[in-house]
Design brief:
single chain, Rossmann fold, 3 domains, 16 helices, elongated, binds uridine-5'-diphosphate-xylopyranose
Length: about 425
């Protein structure tokens, strides 16, 4: 099938590449000519495992192309996916101007029946507004359908999630676009749910907020474990074996982050408020998340007593493993707090150092270290802030030898406590 993707950010680029991989012909549109030039020259503007190969293979096969022209996309594609940003506004509500702009742009070039699919995360009822905009700005009366098809991909696993989705959600107010949407997704072996547009839009926000709730729940339990002398890992394992609960997303840590996850979560509170519902449960989830970081920071402060001029090694800057994304990263937040207290940092992340340089203050108080085993050299304490799995294999004997004092703050519970203690470390995890 001929498909178009408007917006080549995380969601758009990965979606376009995966659609091409399963045999569709995909034209990706972006308003930024520099980005289009980079993509056409074989460059990939983001780090996402497996993406580069996918893009190169499919551009070489002629199934994946990049352009700045929405007109060409509307002329060529049967189905047009909108994948543009929906950033937060100062009052917490969602800025839908990019979505509206794309709808007007599509309308301006609409001459025959097209299916317009919204993949961006949007407030419930956005599909209705998009349809209204398309009707209002079409130059000639043209048939179209608007579909909501939310994307559930995780950064760092985007290709994997897109190629093997748990479910595909299709929201529409008419049956007409359903066969084509089934055809788009036929190569993906996943259950396809057809529902109304408003429900589809709600599924995305409701699912994400539930995951945030799960994390805050286990983080709250971790605080209780610390007070009671219990171990949150044991509690999570015991809880997770109940199939109704499940073990995934029950890892206590320094709080959830990530630009999409946190933004969508806050947006949902605002969206339901506008619908007349005060979602106090989610507000509490947010408060627990902030508390979790505060408690971890306090733990460092209380253990080290004075932070000024202390040297700390920080492992991890990305908001989670497998990504170079540092937006709304708890790890970066922690570094900023430590720097404000006058600490000196030696930091490392396998992918996010370049992006972290842009957000951490340019200062000789921050040293960027390429080798994770080198980070602890001359440090008073070592902090694990991101759950990169290989941090669990740290050379503890070497760390012990090269540190001034042997103190470990494991913000992601990655290390074996007994092993760390056997190496002579004072170990401080989360809820254990
Ligand atoms: C999330 C959703 O998972 C995805 O479905 C949606 O499309 C976009 O938002 P992502 O932002 O990539 O994806 O991050 P995710 O892997 O969900 O992690 C979110 C945050 O929660 C990270 O900061 C992570 O470190 C934290 N987390 C996750 C925990 O603290 N504990 C856990 O058990 C799981």
């Amino acid at each position: 099938m001929r498909l178009a993707i408007i917006g080549t950010g995380y969601v758009g680029l990965v979606t376009g590449a995966c659609f091409a991989e399963v045999g569709h012909h995909v034209l990706c549109v972006d308003i930024d000519p520099r980005k289009v030039a980079v993509l056409n020259a074989g460059g990939i503007p983001i780090y996402e495992p497996g993406l580069e190969d996918l893009v190169h293979r499919n551009t070489a096969a002629g199934r994946l192309r990049f352009t700045c022209s929405t007109a060409t996309a509307v002329a060529e594609a049967e189905v047009i996916f909108i994948c543009v940003p929906t950033p937060p506004q100062p009052d917490g509500s969602v800025d839908l101007s990019f979505i509206e702009g794309v709808a007007r742009e599509i309308a301006a070039h609409l001459t025959e029946y097209r299916i317009i699919v919204d993949k961006s995360t949007v407030p419930v009822k956005t599909g209705e507004k998009v349809a209204e905009t398309l009707r209002r700005y079409s130059r000639t009366p043209t048939e179209f359908d608007v579909v909501s098809n939310p994307e559930f991909l995780r950064e760092g696993f985007a290709v994997e999630d897109l190629m093997n989705p748990d479910r595909i959600v299709i929201g529409t107010s008419s049956v007409r676009p359903v066969p084509k949407m089934r055809e788009v997704y036929a190569p993906f072996a996943a259950p396809l749910i057809v529902t109304d547009t408003n429900s589809a839009e709600l599924i995305k926000h409701a699912a994400n907020s539930f995951l945030a709730l799960k994390i805050s729940y286990i983080n709250a339990i971790s605080a209780i474990c610390e007070a009671a002398g219990a171990n949150v890992l044991e509690v999570a394992n015991g809880m997770g074996m109940d199939e109704r609960i499940g073990r995934r997303f029950l890892n206590a840590g320094i709080g959830f982050g990530g630009s999409c996850f946190s933004k969508d979560f806050s947006a949902f509170i605002k969206i339901v408020e506008q619908l007349g519902y005060d979602f106090r449960l989610l507000k509490e989830v947010q408060r627990i998340n902030t508390d979790q970081m505060d408690r971890f920071f306090k733990k460092i402060q209380e253990t080290l007593w004075v932070l000024k001029d202390k040297r700390l090694g920080v492992l991890g800057l990305a908001f989670k493993q497998n990504t170079d994304d540092v937006r709304t990263s708890p790890a970066v937040d922690l570094c900023q707090r430590l720097l404000r207290e006058g600490a000196r940092l030696r930091v490392h992340d396998p992918k996010a150092m370049e992006k972290a340089r842009a957000v951490l203050p340019p200062s000789d108080a921050v040293e960027y270290v390429d080798d994770p085993d080198e980070v602890s050299a001359g440090c008073d304490a070592l902090v694990i802030a991101t759950e990169w799995p290989h941090f669990a294999k740290l050379d503890l004997a070497r760390a012990r030898r090269q540190m001034t004092t042997a103190i470990l703050f494991d913000g992601r519970n990655l290390l074996d406590r007994a092993e760390a203690e056997a190496h002579g470390f004072l170990y401080r995890g989360v809820g254990r």
